[in-house]
């Protein structure tokens, strides 16, 4: 089930974000992600509109939105490939008429996932924190 997040979810959300980030972003040192844990917990996640995918009391993943921008979509590594990311993204689409997000160019798996979900590449930029190229992707509801 998908539900709104509660403050008690933050620790698990950060764990999922960190573990999934290290695997998906193998081209960025794990130490970078480790250095961002407290900022994610204390600043970024609390400022976003967060939705949790939960099964049998266990958090499997989450999506974070700021307006129409998907700031985070992370699934616990052991739960990936089961449609959870797609379900969270579809939930966000029902809430918003259009969405945007950034994905690292080297994260080909995520880039192809978003393309399959109807997003199109709009532009590229270098991430100031990692020095890696990010692709801005956009989705808009067909009217």
TrEMBL record:
Domain (N-acetyltransferase) ranges: 1-142
Keyword Amino-acid biosynthesis: no
Stored InterPro entries: Acyl_CoA_acyltransferase, GNAT_dom
Highest rank taxon of the organism: Archaea
Keywords, sorted A to Z: Acyltransferase, Transferase
Molecular function via GO: acyltransferase activity, transferring groups other than amino-acyl groups
Keyword Transferase set for record: yes
Pfam family, one: Acetyltransf_7
Protein name: GNAT family acetyltransferase
Native source organism of the sequence: Methanosarcina spelaei
């Amino acid at each position: 089930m998908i539900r709104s997040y509660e403050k008690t979810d933050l620790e698990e959300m950060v764990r999922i974000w960190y573990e999934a980030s290290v695997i998906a972003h193998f081209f960025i040192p794990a130490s970078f992600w480790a250095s961002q844990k407290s900022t994610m917990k204390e600043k970024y996640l609390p400022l976003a509109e967060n939705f949790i995918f939960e099964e049998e009391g266990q958090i499997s993943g989450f999506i974070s939105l700021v307006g129409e921008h998907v700031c985070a979509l992370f699934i616990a590594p052991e739960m990936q490939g089961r449609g959870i990311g797609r379900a969270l993204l579809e939930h966000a689409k029902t809430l918003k008429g259009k969405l945007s997000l950034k994905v690292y160019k080297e994260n080909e798996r995520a880039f192809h996932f978003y393309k399959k979900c109807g997003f199109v590449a709009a532009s590229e930029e270098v991430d100031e924190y990692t020095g890696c190229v990010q692709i801005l992707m956009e989705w808009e509801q067909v009217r």
